[in-house]
Design brief:
The protein is α+β, with helices and mostly antiparallel strands and 392 residues long. It has 3 domains: 2-119, DNA Polymerase III, subunit A, domain 2 (DNA Polymerase III, Chain A, domain 2), CATH 3.10.150; 126-269, DNA Polymerase III, subunit A, domain 2 (DNA Polymerase III, Chain A, domain 2, Roll), CATH 3.10.150.10; 272-386, DNA Polymerase III, Chain A, domain 2 (Roll). The protein is 17% helix and 41% strand. It has 7 helices and 26 strands. It has helices spanning 7-17, 76-85, 126-131, 147-158, 215-223, 284-294, 348-355, and strands spanning 2-6, 32-40, 43-51, 55-61, 64-68, 70-75, 91-97, 100-104, 109-113, 141-146, 172-178, 181-187, 191-198, 209-214, 231-236, 240-245, 254-259, 278-283, 305-310, 315-322, 326-333, 336-338, 342-346, 362-367, 374-378, 382-386. The strands form 4 sheets. It has a 9-stranded antiparallel sheet with strand order 14-11-12-13-26-25-24-18-22. Strands 6-2-3-4-17-16-15-10 form an 8-stranded antiparallel sheet. α1 (7-17) runs antiparallel to α2, α4 packs across α5 (215-223) and α6 (284-294) packs antiparallel against α7.
Length: 392
């Protein structure tokens, strides 16, 4: 293998695939990046692949001159350090010699020992998964949607996943497709975020399917977004999900694969409040700023902020208090308020987390009682349920 690469594009690709490299493993091949150089019809391509056996990522680079097709398997940390250090070079030449690769610039030559490329676990082609050919698992659902809209759904749910819990099902995000409707849901047991979108080009009566996608996979998905209008093809098998970025029917510029999270997702429909009798409309940024300021005088023991909604004056009074620290009182305007006055406590971080992922300037909050969950709505495609905290 011998290729001449644009250094900047190569570094960007290596930084991305390094997210799929295993941090600790008895298999050193899983701490490597596989380089595959191909050439067809005069056009060259360098494919970077990495996997930790749970997630796999493959990225295609077109800014390359492939002088000799071939493969190499090189430790990810070393190639990343070398390509990053050669920051004065516009291009780098990479050449394989057995299990070693040579990286050359104008005034530098690095020889790095790797492993046989055949030791790298195979990653199925997206088309093979769709068709169920070549030993690849057969997809039970295939859908397509613009990258930007998918990224919005992920951003509005991923933040609400559980970070540390033995209930692995809530460490991920529920993907639920029913006909032309796609729904993503996340919860950590104290809050729940739900975002919906209508799929483009999907059959109205397509078979319903759902799966739980790990948070790590979706965090990596967000980093792969380049063009918000770029189509993303999704294939779901019994145990994995595949995201292919690029034109349908082609290998695409990137493919992300992840094992699905096992277990049953909580029956989230039962958690969404149905009979809220107090409704407030407020400006997203005004509320966020007020809650952030009130949160300044909270600590681990008193993490709640008291929200007092006043219907007559259309004001929101926020108060917080922490022993040996002090107290804060903030007043904010409400656009509208319908219902009796109410005082309720919330974890301020839970409110701010939701508001910062919303694009609509006006937000609705619905309440029932101080000991009942609050419901935040934005547009017709986002719901957020947050449990109150006891401030006594």
């Amino acid at each position: 293998m011998k290729v001449i690469c644009d250094r900047g594009a190569l570094l960007e690709g290596i930084n991305l695939v390094s997210g799929a490299v295993a941090a600790r493993t008895p298999k050193p091949q899983l701490q490597c990046v596989k380089l595959t150089a191909t050439k067809s019809a005069g056009a060259g391509e360098l494919i970077l692949s990495a996997t930790d056996a749970e997630i796999a990522l493959r990225i295609s680079l077109s800014k390359v001159d492939v002088q000799k097709p071939g493969e190499a398997l090189v430790p990810a940390d070393k190639i990343r350090q070398i390509v990053s250090a050669e920051d004065n070079e516009p291009t780098l030449t990479i050449e394989s010699e057995g299990d070693a690769i040579h990286i050359r610039g104008v005034d530098a030559h690095f020889k790095v020992f790797g492993y046989p490329a055949g030791d790298f676990p195979p990653i199925p082609e997206f088309a093979a998964v769709v068709a169920g050919t070549g030993g690849a698992p057969q997809a039970k659902a295939v859908l397509s949607h613009p990258a930007g809209s998918l990224a919005g759904l992920v951003a509005r749910t991923l933040f609400a996943t559980a970070r540390e819990t033995s209930r692995y099902a809530i460490n991920g995000v529920l993907f639920k497709r029913d006909g032309k409707r796609l729904e993503l849901v996340a919860t950590d047991g104290r809050r729940l975020a739900l975002a919906r979108a209508n799929l483009t080009g999907s059959e109205k009566d397509a078979k319903a399917v759902q799966c739980i996608v790990p948070g790590k996979c979706l965090g990596m998905f967000q980093k792969l977004i380049q063009d918000h209008d770029e189509p993303v093809q999704i294939a779901i098998t019994d145990s994995q999900i595949y995201f292919s970025f690029g034109t349908a029917g082609s290998p695409g510029r990137a493919m992300l694969v992840s094992n699905l999270t096992e277990g049953a997702f909580p029956p989230y429909e039962d958690v969404i409040p149905k009979e809220q009798d107090k409704k407030v409309v407020f400006d997203r940024d005004v509320m966020s700023h007020a809650v952030k300021r009130a949160a300044l005088l909270t600590n681990e023991e008193s993490r709640g902020v008291r929200l007092a909604f006043k219907g007559k004056s259309k004001k929101l009074e926020l108060a917080s208090r922490a022993p040996e620290m002090g107290e804060a009182n903030i007043t904010a305007d409400l656009a509208t308020y319908d219902g009796d006055d109410i005082e309720i406590g919330f974890n301020p971080a839970f409110i701010v987390d939701a508001l910062k992922v919303l694009s609509e300037p006006q937000v609705i909050m619905e309440l029932k009682a101080p000991n009942k969950p609050g419901l935040i709505k934005s547009g017709g495609d986002f719901l957020y349920v947050v449990m109150p905290v006891n401030l006594t």
